Amino acid sequence: MTTSFFRTALILGLLSAIGPFAIDMYLPALPSIGKDLNAENNVVQMSLLAFFISFAIFQLIYGPLSDMWGRKAPLYMGIGLFAVASVGCALSNDIETLIAFRFLQGIGGAAGMVIPRAIVRDMHTGVQAARLMSLLMLVFSISPILAPLTGSAVISFYGWRGVFWAVTIAAFIGLILLSTQLNETRPKAARVESGLGSAMAAYRLLLGDRNFLTLTFIGGLGISSFLVYLANSPFVLIDHYGLTPTQYSVAFSINAVSFFTVSQLTGWLGDRFGLVRVMRMALTAFSFTMAAMVVVMALGFNQLPVLATFLFIGYGFLGLVIPTTAVLALEDHGEIAGTASALMGTLHFVTAAIAMVIAGLFFDGTALPMAAGIGLCAVAAFILTQATIARRRVVEVEAAAE
């Protein structure tokens, strides 16, 4: 692969990671934010949920805008808003203000999530797209590794407000990279037919595409399993298991190492077995691992090393599921890649938000409800995959009979 290929993956990965960086970096601070702003844990978690809600919904706006205006202009808008909202978060003196600015921060961060996937589709399809997507995931996955560790260091010196000043700096770095290192991948000629009417037509087309929706929800359930962990892990690992914020950051980072390391096999495995088969095999292994975790912990083997081992193995398999489902879902929609990527991202995070709310209702401070939420997401993805396989086989048999 050329230097340009790696450079593109690096830039797109960094732009994609700006929003999640604002999540992962402040996770170690959630307990201290509650104490400083005199808020209960479930109210502090609303600052996380507010980000996810706006992050999900506004991808629907950025996708069509990137088809109409090109990829770079909406990125400038989004990352600029993210930077302004980050300053507001840093200056917040009560939990309500923090939640409001987190909502605005999510609006801005949504651009960095949806548009880089569309750029990948602009440039490549098939296995090459899977390679670029997995490299993008490699850079993107550095966020859950470095962000909590960086957050712990920043918090120890500057408190939780320092986290938001740090992500403000990250946003400005993203703007510099966008302006100097990334070329426009959607030429003006391709934008001629793009408008509000075409965006609505594109969404109708996508909502009627069973293959697109199936692959999107499979990936969304996989992401949900990780975000349920993300939302509950600070309280489980720090308050229940007694880890320090730094120890928590290391424990959280280990899962990201597993995820991005295995994801780098996507291109090689896709060449050898095909992307669909790789996705199915990885999803099966992922769901069985997480289901086994729930059973083992329910039987009383709920020590931290047990939980950590299952998560490390399971999220490794998830590293193959996410890029393959994304590439396969976008494969047939190159002309509306921005809109398709937007709907995919929104459905991913709406699914995750619902899973997080449900898991939060059963949270009791111990690890089992969190593990159960993760396991249910994984099993649901497996069931959906199996139902899809069965349906396709029926179609193939009927076609052969004709």
From TrEMBL:
Matching InterPro entries, A to Z?
Efflux_drug-R_Bcr/CmlA, MFS, MFS_dom, MFS_trans_sf
**What is the taxonomic lineage of the source species?**
Bacteria, Pseudomonadati, Pseudomonadota, Alphaproteobacteria, Hyphomicrobiales
Lineage: superkingdom:
Bacteria
- Matching SUPFAM superfamilies, A to Z? MFS general substrate transporter
Specify whether Disulfide bond is a keyword of the entry.
Answer: no
Q: Where is the signal peptide?
A: none
User: What name goes with this protein?
Assistant: Bcr/CflA family efflux transporter
Locations listed in the record: Cell inner membrane; Cell membrane
- Report the residue ranges that make up the Major facilitator superfamily (MFS) profile domain in this protein: 5-393
Q: Which UniProt keywords apply?
A: Cell inner membrane, Cell membrane, Membrane, Transmembrane, Transmembrane helix, Transport
Q: Which organism is it from?
A: Phyllobacterium myrsinacearum
The primary location reported for this protein is membrane
Q: What GO annotations for molecular function exist for this entry?
A: xenobiotic transmembrane transporter activity
GO annotation, biological process: xenobiotic detoxification by transmembrane export across the plasma membrane
Q: List, alphabetically, the GO terms of the cellular component aspect.
A: plasma membrane
For this protein, the parts annotated as crossing the membrane are 46-63, 75-93, 99-120, 132-157, 163-182, 212-230, 250-269, 281-301, 307-330, 342-362, 368-385
Q: Which CDD domains match?
A: MFS_MdfA_MDR_like
Residue runs in coiled coils: none
Topology in membrane: Multi-pass membrane protein
What family is this protein classified in? Belongs to the major facilitator superfamily. Bcr/CmlA family.
Q: Which NCBIfam families does this UniProt record tie to the protein?
A: efflux_Bcr_CflA (TIGR00710)
Keyword flag Cell membrane: yes
